[in-house]
Amino acid sequence: xxxxxxxxxxxxxxxxxxxxxxKALRKLEFIDKVVVMPTFLNPFKKTFTAPAELRLQWLKDIxxxxxDVEVSAYEVKLKRKVPTITTVKHLLKCYxxxxxxxxxxxLASLHQWYAYDELKKLVTFIVVTRxxxxxxKNFIQLDIDEDISSSGLRENFDSSKIPEKVRDEITQxxxxxxxxxxTKHSKHTR
Length: 190
What we know:
190 residues, alpha/beta, 6-stranded parallel beta sheet, 7 helices, 17% strand, globular
């Protein structure tokens, strides 16, 4: 296990596009293992909807039967925002090469990532197609047909977009959360 693809994110909620990305990464011959890394809190966000431990468990349930896929609790256990470079350096203690998987929607802000100049020397980027964003030739492109965003799902929940293994549990969680939010919102607007 010398070469890994690091696939990090909030996974709030995890959905079928996340699963499709992992399946596509597993087909790449130059990758020995996929490490799925849920954030405790995304460095670019202020809050999360589902707590980190719950998102971690959902991902473990989704990928339990996948060979060569590890769901890592590293960032969740730190209980803070963790810059990608910190996680990459942690993984490079165990692995020879890290491919860093990002969505094409992250390309425009990539230069704003913490210690980006150092990060780009440590990893090779794999960019997942998204929102018809053009991916420069110097990146490895990973084509995925599913164009779903977790933020869109949180706003307009569609249980058919959730992996079957955890569909009922995740659907119930977000429906209850949305109902609580709507109750709070209606109290504030009176």
